[in-house]
Specification:
about 140 residues; mainly beta; Immunoglobulin-like; six-stranded mixed β-sheet; 1 helix; about 10% helix
């Protein structure tokens, strides 16, 4: 048993000390995408899973949707940001397009949920959110 324990400690130490090169030749960077519309039900049923449809803006022809960053600042509050990648040094169309993506949401608590979807920045560079409250039925 001691041998396994010391082997695990040794492996942990080796991986902790080894370095990795973070300078890569990637030709993209991550961007936040402005959410313009959300389809939520009028109410949730406790312990059910819902498919939430989100409309967001692609900044140009070189921006691709990657997923959602969902933060939980409070028990039943969710802050959702759409994340994209934008290609660097590419010939892109400059037309802003709307696209739709979805995510699954499971209702774990029997309290009203507050959703805050990132909608851009104001003139003071502060985030603007689309806010929705959805009650939970038992």
């Amino acid at each position: 048993m001691k041998r396994i324990f010391y082997t695990i400690i040794l492996l942990f130490a080796v991986f902790s000390v080894s370095s990795c090169d973070i300078d890569s030749d990637e030709n993209f960077h991550f961007v936040t995408l402005r959410i313009t519309d959300v389809e939520l039900p009028e109410s949730f049923i406790h312990n059910q899973v819902y498919n939430i449809q989100v409309t967001y803006e692609r900044l140009n022809g070189c921006t691709y949707f990657e997923g959602f960053d969902v933060q939980k600042p409070y028990l039943t509050t969710r802050e959702i940001v759409a994340i994209g990648t934008e290609l660097d040094d590419a010939q892109c169309t400059h037309a802003v397009e709307e696209a739709v993506a979805t995510f699954n949401f499971q209702v774990l608590y029997d309290e009203t949920y507050t959703f805050r979807f990132f909608n851009g920045l104001d003139e003071n560079n502060e985030p603007i959110y689309l806010e929705y409250e959805v009650e939970v039925q038992n």
